[in-house]
Structure prediction request, 321 residues.
Amino acid sequence: MNGLKLGTRGSELALWQANAVAARIRRGTGRECELVVITTTGDRLIEANLSKVGGKQVFVKEIEQALVRGDIDLAVHSAKDMPAELPDGLSIAAVLPRADPRDAVVLPAGVAPPSTLSAVGNGPDGGAAPRVGSGSVRRVAQLRRAWPRAEFRLVRGNVGTRLRKLDAGDHDLLVLAVAGLERLGLGDRVSMRIDADACLPAPGQGIVAVETRAGDTDTGSALAAVDDAPTHAAFTAERALVAALGGGCHAPIGALAEADGDRLRLRAMVASLDGAKQLRREAAISADAAQALGAMVARGLLADGAGPILEAALRAADGAG
Prediction:
């Protein structure tokens, strides 16, 4: 059996994901994967605001181009970094089982965890407004309600860089994905897991997705042994929601699809950038209708007025650029 060339970014977390996929392929089929590290625009502009440099596309464009050219056989991505629409000729052949999709409060090393989410907003000494590091408009829009006094600051860079900035005193706390911290062996840095009712995660958060050329049956058959069906259904519903809303990294959109017996339940949220307006919808239907579920919840949000909120967020991003 021929080996497979697996394209990935070179960050520590991306390599963890790539090696996890390679290990599953090896166990399931006996085939080996050669990792091909590809530097993306997002890696080169690590400190830039995503809304100013092209959105989520900057983390996948070069890898997808290599896939289309045939330089690699499969590409491994963090699902939340993927745009809602794939290039022609590419498809998602597999996803790994989902890790904890929630966001986490991360405090400086040695600082005791807070008792409640609202207590975090009181600041490090109970007086000064807390300086919150986050690169996500979705997190900021939702958490402004819990922390009305907080000063939200843009922070980019890989997880290690962000933690060093936190411990050096640049921020009083960070909001990061639980999954990324745990995959890097940094689960002890999670001070509090934020319940999805308070802050819905990004669509695809905690999911590792594997992309291939649509007609590549050889690679597709290898990935059939890797795919986790319940997670794939959740992934499909969340991406269908974003596609129907026409949103991206410019807009605060949260979504979480979870198994509910033999049905799939999807919760979703659209908010204004300042968090003043928040719309929420949820629905549940048969798990084999995940695409329809995402579209249905999106229609409900649009009927509630999500369109003008999303348009305002896009205009603000264009103006900032």
About this structure: Residues 229-321 form a domain with the Double Stranded RNA Binding Domain fold (CATH 3.30.160.40). The first helix runs from residue 12 to 29.
